[in-house]
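Office hours follow-up: a student asked to see two folded examples consecutively, so here they are.
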Amino acid sequence: MAIIQELVNEEAHHTTIACAVSAFEPENDQEAEELLNLIDNIEPSQEGYLVNLPRVYTNFISNEKINAESIVARCFKKLNWLLNLDIISVKQNTLWRLQIIEGYDERVFDIINSINDKEFDDRLYKSVSNALCRFEDQKFFFEFLKSYGEKNKRKFDAKNFKHPISAYRTKDLPAFSNHLIGLLIHDKGDLRFIGKMILAHVTIGSGRSFRFGIDILELSALEQTKLWVSIFHDYLEPEVSFPLLMPLRKSKYPIVVESFISKVEELVESYSYSVVKEFKRNVDLDDEDDKMLLKRIETKYQEFSNYWDEKVKVKELNPLFTQAKLFSTFMESYSESISKSMERTKEDNDSLLSMLPVVTLAKGGGWKHQQTGQVSPLSRISTELTLPRECFITPEKLDLRIHIGYLENWKEEFKEWEAILSSSENT
């Protein structure tokens, strides 16, 4: 201790002092207090010194021989200060050290969540995601997302939080589903957007096989209505959305069933026969009620199909003609632009492409190496994505509708619905 004290006044040894103190285990509260006082007397001017401080404070917090609440509180206050410094390495190390503290969930969360008080630094996503995985209770992760959403609006990307999303979904699917649904039906549009992005992430990541881990029929009439409105609001193909929502056809609230099925009928105009196919795939064909609902959907499809057949007979109304011309013009311009760009890149002596061997497309399908003559067969990959008809007919209108939808506050938008649903529940 005396040796360390002698080095405090020499700036060159500050980082060494932080390392030494972090490795020292106080035997009692008095020793801990003395060490903290010593650290506080050092002017924090070196990044290397600051980077090592989180280890000092987390070790003191985890030390079972330190019992004074004042010391623990002091250490947490210092950790909060370190995390809010504008030094990325200090922030990252503080987040890493917070992961290993056992207990103190509320205090640790408050410190991590304080990141949302400022503009979020993209370099912190990995560190924050790892730190959020330390909690046993998923509520902390979703509370962080709410704070993040309110601060950053619709900048959320689920890929930045894929680690905690995957961990919590695997650990406790019912709890994960409850929190996810809470976001999807939230009154604030920015939080509904986060819920929708997480839903898209888990459905794509699971090969479109994701299902809620709870019975959505146990939700209230208003919550059931908000859920289908939220999921159908942004475009999500029937193959993904229908398995999540089809239990609503058996809701105990007739108004929920009717509103849901009416929306499914409307979707026929966006997704055509895929609506019928997915509806049929997710119902019991031996159930009379399901057969009646399926008949409604098939009838709607037939009516729309007949209408569409008549419309496309008029060349000026057929998008295969009207939009194909626009698309062809765009592709000619784009191809010319990209070709010129590639030529300029090849001419650059420092470019990577200039160092690559020339390959030729071989007869029969494959790439023929110019020097070796070896033919590498082409691989075949495929994917399928069904987009709503609005994407091709009125894309600007679709984007505007989706954008406005996320600006709406459902507390106001659903007042009339709430009154209608409330009266239906009481009858």
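And the second, which I mentioned at the end of office hours:
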Amino acid sequence: MASTINSAFDVLSGLTVDEMLANPAFLPEIMKQAINGEEVQRLFFRTITVNSNVIAYKEAAPAYLEDDLQNVAEYGEIPVSDPSGDEWQTVMLEKGGIGIRVSWEQRQDDNGDAVQREMISRTNTILRSEAKAGLAAIAKAPISTHQAAVAWDQAGAKPASDILDTIELIQGAEDAEGHYYEYEPSVLWIHPTTLSMLKRNDEVQKLYIGDMAHANPLFNGVADEPQLFGNIQVAKSFFVPKGEAYLSIEGVGFMGEREPRQITDFYAERGDSDLGGANMSWRSDVSHRRGYAVDNPKGIIKLTGLVTP
């Protein structure tokens, strides 16, 4: 992830700080490019636009009516039935925001390294915040867990079997009436170290399928990882603890937002002037009103015990 982000900011090499700020939208646009394709939680949470700060939703259910077809006598009234469904739940939107500054001294002394460090740090902070919000929503959901038979860093580990067992559990998910959800898991959220243990295992090497690009261009960074076991897209992230991973259908939950993430151009603080206002600085702000929830809890399973404590 870090190398991808750094490459997005490589365009700043050789520019003075004054040149970076000459167009107030230039640096924010570079940051948007750095984020694009790196938000792995978007594989798990589909984006929806909402018109309220409180989102009401129901957990997904197999698409069947509450009643089966009924025998109807001649001239008899055909009965009406409704789709089955669970109780309404709600999630609150929260507004997250953070700003960074470029001081008059940084601009005057051409301290480009400091400015670039601020930009990269804010980008990483946004990625961490969104990943943590997604993981928190998963932790709140009534999802199942699957314990690895043997930790993947131990002799005798069979991570391929652990993954395939988990795939079967998701495929076999059913409701109280015995209706299958017909889920097909397709994404694995995992720490890079744990992923390396998975890849180098002899059992996995026999099943390893080479590099396949992900079809969705939003996830260019994610698509650098190969697909495993035929159709499982790997989404590696340092924000997932090493001892666990999440196997899931794509879009197992949603991120409801009032509007897309807002990133302002750089502007002078506390009054516009050539010196950067009363604080002698220019700042750019990020804000985002969004909330995460999992509405397909049977479509995701948490794998545990992957690394020896």
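Two things to take away from it. The domain at 143-253+296-304 is CATH 3.30.2320.10 (hypothetical protein PF0899 fold). Confidence is low (pLDDT under 50) at residues 1-5, 209-220.
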